[in-house]
Write a structure and sequence with these properties.
Elements (H helix, E strand, L loop, with lengths): L1 E5 L2 E4 L4 E8 L7 E7 L6 E6 L6 E3 L7 E6 L4 E6 L8 E8 L2 H5 L11 E6 L1
Parallel strand pairs: 2-10
Antiparallel strand pairs: 1-3, 3-8, 4-5, 4-9, 5-6, 7-8, 9-10
């Protein structure tokens, strides 16, 4: 499945943004989908993931309670609602997929990456 992230922008501390990830190609509902981010000078890190049917979600500790992941399989789209944004959330955000949500949570997993979307949070 091919995934394209969008919705990034420049905001201030405490603001909200909603990122979208649109799928094309293979059946979207066959894939668990996750969000990752890479800040300048840092390694890419896991942010959140959602299972194929949307019943199971997983979050990094740094975003739990502020970010919400969701998906609409009928629209082949996944969302990341980001609230109470902080400067440390500044990064390029990527979406990717796997057959199993556990793979997305595995730091050693080999995943495919498309073009990300930049989120900049100023203080």
């Amino acid at each position: 499945v091919q995934l394209q992230a969008s919705g990034g922008g420049s905001v201030q501390t405490g603001d909200s943004l909603r990122l979208s990830c649109v799928a094309s190609g293979r059946t979207f509902s066959n894939y668990a989908i996750g969000w990752f981010r890479q800040a300048p000078g840092k390694e890419r890190e896991f942010v959140a993931a959602i299972s194929r049917g949307g019943l199971t979600t997983s979050y990094a500790g740094s975003v739990r309670g502020r970010f919400t992941i969701s998906r609409d399989n009928a629209q082949n789209t996944m969302y990341l609602q980001m609230n109470m944004l902080k400067p440390e959330d500044t990064a390029v955000y990527y979406c990717t997929g796997s057959g199993w949500i556990g793979t997305l949570e595995d730091p050693s997993a080999k995943l495919n990456w498309g073009k990300g979307t930049l989120v900049t949070v100023s203080s």
